[in-house]
Amino acid sequence: MSGFLTALGEMFDTATIASIVAGASGLLFATMGETISEKAGVINLSVDGSMMLAALAGFVAAFHTGNVWIGFPAAAAVGVAAALVVAFGNIKLSLNQVAIGFVLFALCTALSRFLGSGYVGRQPVAVPAWDIPALSSIPFFGPVLFSHNLIVYLSMVTVLVTYWFIYRTRAGLALQGVGERPEAAHSRGIPVNKLRYLYTAIGGALIGVGGAAFTLDVKVGWSDRPTLNFGWIVLAIVIFGGWHPLRAAFGVLLFGALQAFALNLQPEFPTFSQVLPSIPFPAMILALVVVNWKTLLDWLDRYPWLRSILRSDPPTAIGTRFEVS
Amino acid sequence: MSARVQNLLLPIAVVVVSTVALLFLAGTNPWDPIRFIIEGSIGWPPFEAGTASKIGDTVMVWVPIALASAGLIVTFNAGMWNIGIEGQIIVGAIAASWAARTISAPRPLLVFLTIVAGAIGGMLWGLLVGVLRTVGGVNEIFGGLGLDFVAVSITTYLIIGPWSRSGVASTSGTDIFPDAALLPSFGGTRLSPLAIVITLAAIGGVWILFRGTLYGLKLKAVGANRPSAFLMGIPTNRFLLGAFMICGALAGIAGTSQATGFHFKLIPAISGNYGFLAILVVLLARFRAFWVIPISFFFAMIAVGASQLDLRLDLSSTLGGVLQGTLVLSAMLGLGWAAYRARKHADAADSAAQDAAT
To answer: pLDDT tens, A25-44?
Structure first.
């Protein structure tokens, strides 16, 4: 028990919290990407595969050019390509989003392993650290938020921009309309399918950047399946976060904390610490049960402030196809 | 050329072209890996003497893929995406391992009990996905996915925890099961006639289910249009649960075969990802039971044969996965494209007819 408490205590260490923030960048990008895509009504189920293939593309581009900043657009391009296949298959060919996403997941995973097999163990350039002057010397907040690198700062900015864009701009309202009530959006003159292509592609780009953040920053280098299962974690966190960027970002940090905690527990509770990192999945199921639990929802409706914190409904038209009739 | 032939040839052409391109990129000639895949799975020339052990392995990889595919046809026909199939295989394997480790009985009885235990384990895990879906309103894709990972965690926990090998705690698996619990196999190979019979019976059963039974017809109605099936008096939720239970049971037997017929112990990656592979098989077979037999055998050949590639050609064995993925993706896009063209064609004919009428 004392070992457990020590491990828990270590979690509140400034260095631990800073490392959680530093390690979250990849998942933050990908989670924002998937949130945008699903908000527009398109489930990009290929994340686990396309993120891995993008991670490879980013690694290879940075490795051969020696310039880490070329890696990120290369990874984004791969993410966009995969996302567009999902969008095209669904919108144009009326294939099931889930079917095409799943097949793409399998193919991209296999491709990343096949094409990446020669790169295992090679070291590319990594994203250089860059402390933000002045801000980084603030006690606690300095090391936690402002002593990382450009990619980590960018991941934080992406979260805020995603939130601001979806909930505070006119274009964001259109994005929500496309995912909630495509017919209504269409009748207001919003080009539903064009926007779905656009936001799936933007989502794919962020998923790609997320992949590259792993191979060029979080865990520099290429190994067989370096981002294994992180794509599925992303899907779980998007749901856990109730399709809300800020709540999803909180979910990512919570997952990071869980991983750090599991690492701390490793010496004394080896079995438990092996199992701990898969908690996001039962958490996702629980979140989905709660979302659909009528009694609880009725009860929540009586407390508006609680409702706005806890209630989360999926975009109404998620996973469906829209056709102009 | 008829549309049917075109639909078949297009994906194959895409696979051949993209594979050849990929292999040139990887710096080998395209023929060698294909030959080694065939040689590594069924021998070259095929079925030559001395290849019995390879063929046994390939068949015992075919068994779980085909069983899971048969199960998936049931859930797909009910309109459900059972991504939880991996978890159902895993829990089946866990339940079979439990029976193999704890029950002592003469061999035929114990083998029977491990299979029953596996089927029940998989069935319950499938039922859980179904209950989450029908009672909890949890989409089966995400519920199933979540339960997949929970099942993996349970396996890992058992292997390094209560079922760890005597003396050493390692992630390499449990102790080998007692002989009496293993699937009876054929002369020094893994090939188990019993497993083959069960698999073929399962596929036949699924074929009959949708060809000649009212239950199958109702399941299809539930899958095609749930609200109207409900209005017609079909208890849709009960049918959905039934579909998940059938699929789970078959997946559980697949897991049993993995545990007692292939690895002879419980290992962390006990499912071999065959559940996900089976989803690809069923998509390619377009939900038709009969086609599951050859397609899953082909996939098993690739899976077993490709594992030799890094030894023989210094080429990554993951080529197998690339082949499978390319095949299914191009078939899917090809069929989608053909259907899109057909729709456009019909629309054009429609508007022409309308023009003529006015």
So the answer is: 999 999 999 999 999 999 99
pLDDT in tens, B132-178: 999 988 889 989 999 999 999 999 999 988 998 877 767 789 999 99
Distances (CA, A) of A9 to A6, A22, A268: 5, 20, 15
What SS3 class is residue B177? coil
User: How far is residue A43's CA from residue B244's CA, in Å, rounded to a whole number?
Assistant: 23
Helix, strand, coil share (%) of chain B residues, nearest 5: 75, 0, 25
Confidence tier at B8 by pLDDT (50, 70, 90): low
Structural element, H or E, at residue A2 = helix A2-10
The type of residue at A125 is: V
- Amino acid identity at B253: I
Please write the tens of the pLDDT for every residue from A114-163: 999 889 988 888 999 999 998 988 988 999 999 999 999 999 999 999 99
Q: Which residue of A has its CA nearest to B131?
A: A289
The answer to whether the CB atoms of B145 and A89 lie below 8 A apart is no
- CA gap B255, B120 in Å, rounded: 11
Of B22, B83, B142, which has the smallest distance from its Cβ to A288's Cβ? B142
Residues A305, A310, A316: CA angle, nearest 5 degrees: 110
Question: Which amino acid, one-letter code, is at B349?
Answer: A
Q: Using CA atoms, how far apart are residues B134 and B78, in angstroms rounded to an integer? A: 13
Show Cβ contacts of residue A104 under 8 Å, excluding neighbours closer than 6 positions: A45, A46, A49, A50, A82, A85, A86, B329
Q: How many Cβ atoms from other residues are within 10 Å of residue A54's Cβ? A: 37
Which residues make beta-bridge pairs with A149?
Answer: A129
Nearest to A92 among B138, B161, B340 (CB): B340
Q: Are B78 and B240 in contact (CB under 8 A)?
A: yes
Q: How far off is chain A from B56, nearest CA to CA, in Å?
A: 25
Q: Are A237 and A256 in contact (CB under 8 A)?
A: no
Q: Which of B149, B169, B328 comes nearest A281 by C-beta?
A: B149
Count of residues for chain A?
325
A281 has pLDDT over 90: no
What does the alpha-carbon distance between residue A91 and residue A104 come to, in Å, rounded to a whole number?
16
In angstroms, the CA B145 to CA B151 distance is: 10
Contact B270, B155 (CB under 8 A): yes
Q: Number of helices (H) and strands (E), helices first, in chain B? A: 14, 0
* Share of residues in chain A with pLDDT > 70 (%): 98
Specify whether the CB–CB gap between B243 and B81 falls below 8 A.
Answer: no
SS3 assignment, position A41: coil
Domain range list for chain B? 62-301
From the number of C-beta atoms within 10 Å of its C-beta (0-12, 13-18, 19+), residue B283 rates as: buried
CA distance A42 to chain B (A): 15
The Cα–Cα gap between A266 and A264 comes to: 6
Yes or no: say if A38 and A196 are a contact pair by the CB < 8 Å rule.
no
Residues A322 and A41 sit within 8 Å (Cβ to Cβ): yes
Check if the beta carbon of residue A37 is closer than 8 Å to that of residue A203: yes
CATH of the domain spanning A2-310 = 1.10.3470
Tokens of residue A95, six digits: 């294939």
Kindly list the distances between the CA atom of residue A30 and the CA atoms of A36, A48, A213, A255, B313, in Å, as whole numbers in the listed order. 10, 10, 10, 14, 36
Secondary structure (3-state) at A149: strand
Q: Helix and strand tally (H, E) in chain A?
A: 17, 0
Question: B86 with B145: CB under 8 angstroms?
Answer: no
For residue A58, the one-letter residue type is G
Partners of A129 in the β-ladder: A149
Q: Tokens at residue A28, please?
A: 């933050």
Say how far residue A123 (Cα) sits from the centre of its chain.
25
